[in-house]
Design brief:
Two copies of one chain form a homodimer.
Chain A (H helix, E strand, L loop, with lengths): L1 E3 L2 H13 L4 E6 L5 H13 L2 E6 L19 H10 L4 E3 L3 H4 L6 E5 H5 L2 H4 L3 H16 L3 E5 L3 H13 L5 E5 L19 H6 L2 H14 L5 H12 L5 E10 L15 E9 L2 E9 L2
Parallel strand pairs in A: 1-4, 2-3, 2-6, 3-4, 6-7
Antiparallel strand pairs in A: 8-9, 9-10
Chain lengths: ~280, ~280
């Protein structure tokens, strides 16, 4: 595994592969890798000649009161995990090599960025879109791999790629869960024992939505009421949002329709720790 | 000259050239071509294996009260001029092929976009940056050619290319002027006879600034006072702004300094027609 620290060094190493028309898969991460990340790496390895993984904790996507400084880090362990997967390239740039001092350009995906998580994190998706756009320009991958756990992020990036005429395939990979159903997330390490025990309730609520739809329920108010009932089991959970939205434009759906794929999505706090989860539902 | 109407058709024609590592020069225009545009085409032809010229009146860069609908058009004449220059590719997309119905992604260059023309045209440079970014992604040129007349546009695009890690050289080409000094512009056709006769005063004011600096003046307030004196000759001119700014960050300069390249820039209305001009000054 080659570890590159600057966009220039990375570009030099990738150029021969591009010239040989090798396909390049790209998996962007913020490090502290778990099985969710590794499943993206395996998929990219299977579908491409070479795979580039980036580890970069992007300051632009954190709000002023968010967890940028305490975001978990363990580069040594990350490297060892990526080596085991036979990852070809690991890109770990310094912040100053990504954002020059007079950096001032942002990419913004309008409507999609303001929905769901965008309401409590108003500049988050602008930061995500900007850094992904930069990395796509540096790496010029054939395919970009994103996890379904950040479903809104996936749609924002997919829309940006379409709107800006970028030549990359954006591929979403399913959520990887702990045995008790909690979606894997680097932020799960923040949870104390009691909250960790309650956290699987998020997934249980999503499964309740799927069950309700399977039994014929089409009214999303009633489906959400059922989900809230499940969430009540977790006494320390402070719900941020619970929504059932059109999977493409993330607009709220009132009545389910066979022709519209929807996502049930939620976010909530255990103490200061914000967790998200979602599930795709076909009516 | 091959005329292409869609990004897909253009891409198919350019792909063999990219594979052969031919250098591609790109000259974006809004049509109604004059010698200023053609000087960019000639420069691109000289410096590249093939040249792509685009004609696209970009709705995103016009404000709600601006001249989008009456912007001058003459595609037949434009084609004939470009053929005479042996232009290889002309790209004339329809608006719907550039902006899909649910298009919602914009690129914004922060500080630079708010200065000079940005004060009276608050969304203009966002529209310019977005369309240029899209066209760069469609065409993937080696070099991009922009005229100095839109100096702020040049800096905004140059900064965007740097900030977003785009692999294109941004090249600025000098202003081409009418015999009486008026900077060539598609909008000059709007001027009535009286205004057209007065319009060269813009360039005369810029030359007065250069003369003042040559005689040792370093105080920009006094230089601008001299320029305003010249502009008074044009009774019908309504000045929008007159500034002397740092050529890189477009911030106002109070005292000229040998080490800082500056631009004297102005904009003014003759009737409803807004004209701009500028000149680079070395102290």
């Amino acid at each position: 595994m080659q570890v590159l620290r600057t966009p220039q060094a990375l570009n030099r190493r990738l150029e021969p592969h591009r010239n040989k028309k090798n396909s390049v898969g790209f998996v962007p991460t913020m490090g502290f890798l778990h099985e969710g990340h590794l499943s993206l790496v395996r998929r990219s390895k299977k579908e491409n000649d070479i795979t580039v993984v980036s580890i970069f904790i992007n300051p632009l996507q954190f709000g002023p009161k968010e967890d940028l400084n305490r975001y978990p880090r363990n580069i040594k362990r990350d490297k060892s995990l990526l080596k085991k997967e036979n990852t070809e390239f690991l890109f770990i740039p310094e912040t100053r090599d990504v954002y020059a001092e007079d950096f001032q350009t942002t990419a913004k995906v309008g409507y999609l960025s303001g929905r769901l998580c965008g309401r409590s994190r108003p500049t988050h998706f602008q930061g995500v879109a900007t850094v992904v756009l930069k990395f796509l320009n540096m790496i010029k991958p054939s395919s970009l791999y994103l996890g379904q756990k950040d479903y809104q992020q996936f749609r924002v990036i997919e829309k940006m790629v379409e709107d800006l005429n970028l030549a990359v395939h954006v591929k979403m990979h399913p959520i990887v869960r702990e045995k008790d159903g909690l979606a894997m997330s680097s932020r799960n390490v923040y949870l104390n024992k009691k909250d960790r025990a309650q956290a699987p309730v998020l997934y249980q609520a999503l499964k309740a939505a799927v069950r309700a739809v399977k039994t014929g329920e089409r009214n999303t108010s009633r489906i959400k009421a059922g989900m809230r009932q499940v969430l009540k089991k977790a006494g320390t959970l402070r719900l941020d949002y619970l929504e059932i939205v059109d999977a493409r434009n993330l607009a709220p759906v009132v009545t389910l329709d066979k022709n519209v794929r929807v996502v049930a999505a939620l976010a909530g706090f255990f103490g200061p720790t914000r967790l998200i989860d979602n599930i795709l539902i076909k009516a």
